[in-house]
Amino acid sequence: MKSPLQHSKGAQVAVAVMVVLGLLGGCLIVAHSGFGTSPRRGGPSIFVPVPQAYVLAFTMFGMSMLGLLALLQGRRVSRTASALAVVLYAVVVTFLTTALAPSAL
Which residues cross the membrane (predicted)? Predict the structure, then answer.
């Protein structure tokens, strides 16, 4: 059986940053029930409402979760620890979404 691929520290840091940014971006989209775009050459910004915005938030959460699981797999943690990390991730998502909501600020 092949030994698993070891990633460099730089690659691990890059994936960890992707995990955090995906988590924060998804939480901001859900907390604000959408997001606004900023046109490059001026003009009015466009607000992307809930149904379409949740697709992007789901994609960001999925990307972030896959990155987290890849980091855990690189450290060779048990399945129990990975399951606990997924549950903790869901708790952090819930907490951040409520904390970043406009009514909470």
Answer: 12-33, 53-72, 84-104
